[in-house]
Design goal:
Strand content: 5-15%
Distance between the termini: 68 Å
Number of strands: 14
Structural class: alpha/beta
CATH class of the largest domain: Alpha Beta
Low-confidence stretches: 1-10
CATH superfamily of the largest domain: Reverse transcriptase/Diguanylate cyclase domain
Shape: elongated
Radius of gyration: 36 Å
Helix content: 40-55%
Largest sheet: 5 strands, mixed
Length: about 550
């Protein structure tokens, strides 16, 4: 389907207004800035107030008899400058009742500031002029809306006929006779449709526009909403092949709504798809179905390929700028990850967890492939995240053990999800192996225990208070000693202090706590308290 190009509704210009009988009777004469005859009139205003500029919004045809005009040249210059800054269409002075001629200071100011100045050599009825021009504006606006409605119906027919965003953009470019650009916020140009100019010229114009260069063509644009206050990006038309008019703006406004719906539909379909797969993965542990039945269901959801073992992974947390994996911004990330796994011929099924985690199970041809495939999948996730959202730190990824079947994979998934939050407090690494025992995960699981809190307080409170009064070095020194298993030479090197300074600090710790740091049990108790402190709200 092709949209026939409708003749564009022309705006009412100053030149058009001078042709109406109501103004022709005044014998209009252009005295300054004749180029302003092409200016578009948005409204007509009659006033004799000297500070009228502050009440105008731009595009007005201002009618005046000059009654309130300042007689001083400086005052006339100020008025003209303010009117020009407001970008009014033109200033029309009626001669006769107040002024016999246009003051020379007003004329010079109009030329200096680029304001279209017109004199009426005979008296006219301002109310008749105003009504006549307003009727023209209303008629033009009505025709503009009627044509826009026809255009909207054509766009809708395109979408209902199975066309996508690219087809709508191509028809919009044909209609406005200029290239159209769809930009994804934060990701650059997503797609463009050219008109007469070739791709190289169109993209060059876009580069100039996006960089804000003075050489960029005139543009009209609209935000592409994503829902609520969020924005997917913007739709832009550049006046590269011809001028833009009022209908171009209305056409963009009509197109942007349908484009937003099409984009949201795709996002919503993908979002629902990952939710459905997430429900399947979360239900593995409670299902009564046999392995063959569950495998068939997984195949229906897109898991295909040969495998000997199943590897469960969970991703969550991450940088607040990226949001959790369950956010709509992650839809494209998950889409890219799925495509990357498909291209690598790694069987996979991805879904959303109950709290927005990303769950996925991948197939291993051999159990020995666990570490290699886990690393590959995590790297693909990181690449998709960088491409779609940005370079913020990736989420925490927990990897369970290789499972012999779907039910076992479900148990592994739940173990990985449960380990995510604690793993987020550990040292950052590409992925966390939840098959390895972790003191941090154990302590995290006990973070609500009153006994653990009391134990940590008893061990560390004296040192925390001493640090608050001193240079804040004792807790850090003790932590470094524990991390180095009590080896003092390695501790001094890690802290970058001399041994005598280290011995002085350790003596202070022993004096304050009354403990012997050479005792293995004492050192262990401090180590446990220091690691538990990360999960407790201790000052």
């Amino acid at each position: 389907m092709c949209i026939d190009h409708l003749s564009h509704a022309t705006a009412v210009s100053v030149g058009d207004a001078l042709k109406i009988p109501e103004l022709r009777r005044g014998v209009p004469e252009v005295l300054a800035h004749e180029a302003g005859l092409a200016n578009e009139i948005r409204w007509v205003h009659a006033s004799e107030v000297s500070n009228i500029a502050s009440l105008l919004r731009g595009g007005e045809l201002l009618l005046s008899t000059g009654m309130g005009l300042d007689r001083a040249a400086a005052g006339q210059d100020r008025l003209v400058r303010e009117l020009a800054e407001r970008r009014i269409a033109a200033l029309v002075i009626e001669l006769g009742s107040s002024l016999r001629v246009v003051p020379r200071g007003l004329l010079r100011a109009a030329e200096r500031h680029g304001l279209c100045l017109i004199a009426l050599n005979r008296e006219v009825r301002f109310v008749e002029v105003t009504e006549a021009i307003h009727r023209m504006l209303i008629d033009q606006g009505g025709e503009l809306l009627r044509r826009a409605d026809r255009l909207h119906r054509r766009f809708t027919a395109l979408m209902l006929g199975g066309a996508g965003v690219t087809e709508v953009l191509a028809e919009l470019a044909r209609f406005v006779r200029n290239p159209v650009f769809l930009e994804r916020a934060g990701h650059g140009l997503a797609y463009h449709a050219r008109h007469e100019s070739d791709d190289e010229t169109a993209l060059g114009a876009w580069a100039a526009f996006s960089r804000g260069l003075a050489t960029a063509p005139e543009a009209t644009e609209e935000r592409v909403p994503l829902g609520g206050e969020e924005s997917w990006g913007r739709l832009v038309v550049l006046a590269l092949d011809g001028p833009l008019d009022g209908q171009a703006q209305v056409a963009v406004e009509r197109a942007v709504g349908l484009i937003a719906l099409a984009l949201m539909r795709r996002e919503e379909e993908d979002h629902l798809s990952t939710r459905q797969r997430g429900d399947f993965l979360l239900g593995l542990t409670g299902t009564r179905a046999g392995e063959a039945e569950v495998a068939a269901r997984a195949a229906e959801l897109g898991f295909s390929g040969a495998w000997e073992r199943l590897l469960p992974l969970a991703a969550g947390g991450g940088d607040p700028r990226t949001g959790p994996p369950g956010d709509v911004a992650w839809v494209a990330v998950k889409r890219d990850l799925r495509l990357s796994l498909d291209r690598a011929r790694i069987p996979a099924i991805l879904g959303d967890g109950e709290d927005g985690e990303l769950l996925f199970v991948v197939g291993l041809r051999h159990a020995a492939d666990r570490e290699r495939v886990a690393g590959t999948a995590v790297e693909m996730l990181r690449e998709a995240l960088t491409r779609r959202i940005g370079s913020a730190p990736p989420p925490t990824v927990a990897v369970a053990g290789a499972a012999a079947g779907w039910r076992e994979a479900g148990l592994g998934l739940r173990t990985a999800v449960a380990a995510l939050e604690a793993a987020g407090h550990e040292e950052r690494r590409p992925w966390h192996d939840v098959t390895e025992p972790s003191p941090d995960r154990l302590l995290y699981s006990l973070r609500d225990s009153a006994d653990l809190r009391e134990f940590t307080e008893q061990r560390l409170r004296p040192l925390i208070e001493a640090d608050s009064r001193g240079r804040g070095e004792l807790v850090r020194t003790l932590g470094t000693l524990c991390d180095n298993a009590g080896r003092r030479a390695e501790t001094a090197a890690a802290l970058e202090v001399k041994r005598q300074s280290l011995y002085h600090r350790l003596n202070r710790i022993e004096e304050i706590t009354g403990c012997d740091l050479s005792d293995g049990d004492v050192l262990l108790s401090f180590h446990v308290a220091l690691r538990a402190r990360r999960f407790l709200e201790l000052a």
